[in-house]
Each structure stands twice: as C-alpha cells, then as structure tokens.
Write a structure and sequence with these properties.
The protein is of the alpha+beta class. Helices cover 43% and strands 15% of the residues.
Length: 470
Amino acid sequence: MRIGAHFMPVFRHEDQVCAPTKAQCVNFRIQVMPIVNRRHAESVKADAGRKYRAYPTGDQSQVLIGWGHTARALWNVALEQRVYLWEQRRYTLRSAEQCKQLTAARNDLEWIGELPAQAGQQILRSLDRAYDNFWNPEHPARFPARKKRGHRLSIPFPGQAVEVRKLNRKWAEVRLPKLGWLRFRLSRAIGGTIRNATISRDGNGWHISFGVHTGRKPDAPNGKPACGVDFGVAASAFVSTETAPRLMPPSLTANEQKRLRALEQRKARQVTYAKKYNGGKYGNRLRTTIAQIAGLTTRQANRRQDFTHKLTTDLAKNHGLIGIENLCVKNMSKSAKGTAEKPGRNVRQKARLNRAILDNTPGERRRQLEYKACMHGSVLVTVPPFHTSQTCAACGQVDPGSRKGCGRLFACTHCGHEDDADHNASVEIEARARRTGGSDINSTRSIPRVRVPASGRRRMREAPKPAHAS
C-alpha cells in the first residue's frame, strides 16, 4: 500500500481484520508520539452528558442497525490501516488524512456510502482520541481494541449535524442525517449547547446521548463536615457520619437470577448445536436467547448504576471532604484457580466474592465522586487502604486480633473500644483523609460510636480461638 493511497486495499472481510499483538502495542507506546489537534483542543468541549430513551420506527430501526454494523467495521478497518502503516513504514496516520481517504472509499463501496459522512468522520476522530488516551501515561486506557460483532451498536454524530426540537412537555425529536426525525422521551432538559450526539442500542432498546456544553463553573468550597466512606461487600458503603450502613438492593431478584442461569444454559446448548449441525451460523432461537440475556443484564446494570449515582451525589452534596480507600480492584478480584501444579483453594468461594466486589463497583464510585465533588464544592481524598479494618479509630493501634472471628464486631485489644467493623474503618479513613488533604474540615470524632448489640459481643467472645492464635 502506498502512503497516499486511500484505504481500500485493506478492506476485506471483517473477520479477517486482525488486532495488534501485545508486542506491537508496546512498540506503539514507546516509539510513536501523539499529534495534537490544536483546533479541536481549543474548541468548546462538552462538560455534561444527557441520555434519553429513543423510539425509532420499524424502518428507522433497521437503518440504524445497518449503520451500527458499518460503524463497527469502519472502526476496525481504520485501526487495521494504522497498525499496518506503522509496522511497514513507521508512519503515523491520523484522522485528517483518513477522512480524505474515507471520501474516496464512499464512492467505491456502497455499504460505506450508506453511512452518513459526518458519522464516519466522527468515528475516525474517536480513534484519534483513543490513541491519545493510550499515549497519555496518566490515563488508564489500553491500546485501541477491535470491536466484535456482539459489541454494543453505536453511531456518533457531531453537534453541527443534528437538530433538536421540543414537541411537548414529555417528548422531543432529533433530526439525524439521512434518517429524518427520531422521537425520544424528554425526561430532563438538555440545558446547554449540543456538541455531539450518539445513538446506541442496548438490551432495553435504543437511546440517544448528547454531549452538552453547559458552561457551569465548579462550586466554591461548601464548608460542610468531612466524612470517610468504607466500600465493602457486606455493607455496600458505611459513612463515618452515619450510624447505619447503606446497603445496595440486589441488582437481580432471586427469580431473575434463576432465569438468567437457565438462559445461559440454554444459550450454551444452542451454540453447541449451531457449531455441530449448522456450520456455526446462529439461528433465530439463539438470537432470541441472546436478546433475553441482554435484557436481564442491562436491567441489572441500570439498577447498579442508579444506586451508585444516588450514593455519590448525596456524598458530594452533603460533605466538604470525602475520604475513600485507594483500592486496586483488579488485584482484589483476581481468580484463585492457581496453576495445574499448585491449584488454588476455595476457588468457588473466591469466585463468588469476586462477583460481589465487582457488583458493588468501587471503581465506578470513585470515578463519579471525582467529578461530582468538584461540581458541588467538596474535596475527594484517597488514602492507603492498608490496615484500615485492623486499626482502632479511638487509640490508633493496629492489631489483627481486634478482628477475631467472622462477625462484624471490632473490639480493640489495647483500649477496649468496641464498634461495628465497617464504621470503625470509615472513621479511620476520615482521619487519614484529614491528615492528608483537609485538616481544616470539621471532624466527626465526636459522633457517637455505633455499638454492636450485647448478644453479638457475647457470641464473639465465646467463639473458639483459632489454632494459630494459641
């Protein structure tokens, strides 16, 4: 392929478009430097997001499905072209040049010409942003990945390509290029200038998302009390200023969990049948099963996200300083299978614990607190998580013996302080956060401690002592 030629030579069957190897990713990160688009950086960017439920007609839905698969294939081909040019010529390709080549490809390939030109250009700009995030050492993004067929369908548009008009108090519609007016439920005001729009589909249907520039400035420090938050599994979140934990409702009911398990077993049987008798081609029944699984998992994610948003918004609004643990969720949720020579112990129990940790989404809670704290005039401080559950919040002594047994009691072996283990940890987290970045914030040390009922303390004291402690 010549450098100046358009990228038709790399167009082939989408299953043959390969992703780069790990070694290639390392070479990309070390040897290639990002090229900053100054004009894009200086433009007004979106600072808020708005998501609405969209209701396309039957014909519009079919068109959007085709566009979604075309957008996915365009992403894969553009990524493959960049990898190919770097491997062969050490040439860094960016969206400005690929957009020119896209114009030529639209004339030669009908399936690309059906996708609006604005959407194709926006996809290439998104690929630029993915590369920039990968090159940024402070960003956790990995090398841009290839999108599989089962990936969530989405079609991006720039803000100049869409138009929104309000129909009544509850409904509005957006005009998309080559599609016309698409109705969506106006559940909240847009409240700003639209900078971009994305139409996407999940297990519950179609949604339209707007990136909006509101021009909102960060609030001044609110001067409210400080708090420490202990994220866990038994107690989803225990705030140091409260006397009871905040428990996340089950993301799926017992009947929904049984149904999800049955659907996954059915899917496994149907996939085996398709590979054995149908050449690997999915039938309508298998696609129906996959859609039903997607509906349940999307409902589960929505419930989890709803609790997370309510929790983080309340913490950011009502506290001047928020202390949380700097958790490494990836290491916490590692599998216990081990190796063939040294197999792990309690593998199934650890797998269940991993699911519970990921279901409480501590990483997502931290991400939301980072931008909500700035919005509402509070400060977020992360503290080392070492020994927070073994440190006495009253005297500061660290002793694993204070957490004997498997109950929720913390009984200090030095000063005799007794408290709920999670509440004691949250008070210790707040103290560490105040020492780190907020000594002028009001303390909660004078708040009455949470006491464990006498029956619970009696059971803990009468529990047999472990063999290694004797």
